[in-house]
Amino acid sequence: MIRALVFDFDGLILETEVPALESWAEIYREHGHEIPMDEWHALLGSARGFDPGEHLAALVGEGFDVTAARARRTSRRDELIAALDVMAGVREYVADARRMGLRLGVASSSTRGWVMGHLERLGIHEHWDVVKCREDVPRTKPAPDLYLATLDALSVPGDAAIAFEDSPNGIASAKAAGMWCVAVPNVLTQGLDLTQADVRLASLADVGLEELLRVVTSSTNT
Asked: Which burial class, exposed, middle or buried, applies to 32 when counting CB atoms under 10 A from its CB (0-12, 13-18, 19+)?
């Protein structure tokens, strides 16, 4: 029986991933380069690996101010994100979960300041029983640490919880923690391999929580 829902943050609750990419892509283009999408895709859902600033510095060479570039990029990213609301269906899922007595968590490879700042801005920070971020664990996704820490704080076993993820790294993390996983890809991840997930939805707005729970329950009983 499902007792908890655990949500990824970036690209799942809030579409931060397109602004994160576009803000770097703009700077790359100013210098006559394109950001390598294979490297960017590998970074999604994790906090490890590709460093766009260092990569662009190596391409441009002498005279490139990576510190200034990062500052400009951060300002532009935050400008784009500030105009966004939560992704479709999230508020409804949260409300339905509360009505049904389910526990709610967030498991994110981003920093706590980033996640909590946006949850507060969006007016949904008070709904979560647990929020675990990169500072809380030794390893971020695709390692299972974030989900294991969230499950422990929720006092719920993995097979009684559903993770909602948009990236292969996140899905791998949830499955390694023994959880059910629902893939809800965004425009950057819809073409990636999400086949490890148990269910794939185009949007949380397409399928209500009660219907989704029936699908998971049916899978459990077969």
From this structure: exposed
Token couple for 154? 């929720």
Average pLDDT over residues 63-81: 92
Mutual orientation of helices 66-81 and 52-60 as an angle, nearest 10°? 130
Which tokens go with 195?
A: 């086949």
Q: Are strands 4-7 and 103-107 parallel, antiparallel or unpaired?
A: parallel
pLDDT in tens, 170-191: 999 999 999 999 999 998 888 8
CA distance 70 to 182: 33
CA-nearest of 9, 216, 222, 210 to 105 is 9
Reduced DSSP (H G I as helix, E B as strand, rest coil) percent helix, strand, coil of the chain, to 5: 50, 10, 40
- pLDDT tens digits, residue range 105-133? 999 999 999 999 999 999 999 999 999 99
Nearest 5°: the CA angle 199, 129, 8 is 35
**Is residue 8 flagged as an active site residue?**
yes
How high is the pLDDT of residue 40?
86
Q: Is 10 a catalytic residue?
A: yes
Residue 102's pLDDT is what?
98
